[in-house]
Amino acid sequence: MTQGPTSLLPVWARTTARRPRTRHHPLHATTADAMEGEDAHHRPSSSSSGRPFLSGLCAAALRRKPLSSRTATATSSEGLVRQLGVLELVLIGIGASIGAGIFVITGTVARDAGPGVTISFVLAGAACVLNALCYAELASRFPAVVGGAYLYTYAAFNELTAFLVFTQLMIDYHIGAASIARSLASYFIQFLELIPSVKGNVPSWIGHGEEFFGGVVSVNILAPILLIILTVILCRGVKESSTVNTFMTTLKIIIVIVVVFAGVFEVDVSNWSPFMPNGFKAVVTGSTVVFFAYVGFDAVANSAEEAKRPQRDLPIGILGSLLVCVILYVAVCLVITGMVPYTLLGEDAPLAEAFSAKGLKFVTVLISIGAVAGLTTTLLVGLYVQSRLYLGLGRDGLLPSIFAKVHPTLHTPLHSQIWVGCVAAVLAGLFNVQALSHILSVGTLTGYSVVSAWVITLRWSDKATNSRSLGSMSIWQEGVLCLVIVALCGFIAGISYRFSYAVAFIIVAFLIAIVASFALQFRQVYVPVEAPRFSCPGVPMVPVVSVFFNMFLFAQLHEEAWYRFVILSLIAVGVYAGYGQYYSVPSTSDRSSVAYHGVPSEAP
Question: pTM of the full predicted structure?
């Protein structure tokens, strides 16, 4: 029987209602409760034991996690610390989004789109704003828990889907962190080689990478060292890591502004004509490429348990960081295409070469410093987000309980943080993971799509979703089917666009998606969000457009990224079947609330 989607406690509330419970003081869990919560990670879940394997797997896979919109107010000696203000959250989002790419991707895409690359960044930024609005609503409605897209998927759909989202995200994060570390090591060596006595005297295996055994192994010594340093900073505490991120991100923003102002005086407006030399299609294609330059604002949602006033500050951090990134990217695009004709832009370092051609070589030094700062913050925030995701899965029992431990004095998930640092260090030190960059972004787009879909299902009225549709399916099932149709239409439109199929395919897919969108608009009853929580405007249309465009972008990924999605999903199902279904503890209660420090709850 299908459960109503918006009631996050349909099964678990009934289960706990039949079992008498002892009331505890809301601020302090007893020792017995703490031991019981710890033991829950070490014994198989009762919902999966005593059943045939397949039926037990299906029952476990369809479990959902209840969430409370109220923040916990525990004051025990262990737990995460609420120390991040709105400025720190905005800088976390900017630090995760803007790396060295702002000095590179702006010029490389301009070589195809011309000055129209500015419109490419605006279009991509607008698409990201749609996703950011959905993230902002969920972060505001459920500010007390860590986990981001994984957690939202767990509560909205089911346990198995949440685990699949986590595995896809983790591959993106692990490979991405190792790749960024190698790039940071290379940029760092290039920066040192600005000193004449150092230039040409640094062995390639130290920072640039040296291949052995026919390229199977690529040794890079500096990359793991940098990862160890950042991991130590993150382990020391969120305040220390936030301070480093604030300094480096501020430095990066200042450098970008200086670069823009230095370039403004060298702009020749005749270089902006023609503005779209290869047509609007090249601009749209460019937007699908630069979309991923904005990825990172979702990192703010994973700071939920460490934000001082999450209900207010998380939406500001998510949307504010994204808007700052849009402004900076557009400004750099206008400058670089105005300084040099787009046909003369270089491949590897277009912005630096443009300033060198104008005789402003001192700016290239600033660009090198900005690239190092940008990669450092991107790597720092990436490692931070990974540890919080592992923390969430450890709490839920889908991973061993060691990942759920928070250090009693440092108030950081020490074991999770060390684990993600070690994985990245091994990958960065021994393998040329940059060659795998074309299979990334699968997890990001999957997470964005699920988050957008849940904003819709979360608004559905219980009374309406439990009623019957015209046929045998319920209104809720009809709504989910419409969401699936929108996603498939986005993917089909993307495939047709990518391989230059007949325009009719794109038009038909677009029209079917419109019909499904209207069904979502007029066949469902939506409940408004209570103040003072942030509310995504235009539900369901804004999330629907977000899902459609995310799947359109999914179709633009490399074919190997699709293979990776399928293969990794099968592996994840196997891991879940062998471990997760038996040890997961999705049900939450008062005693399992996370401890916070220093700031009272904002929840009404």
Answer: 0.83
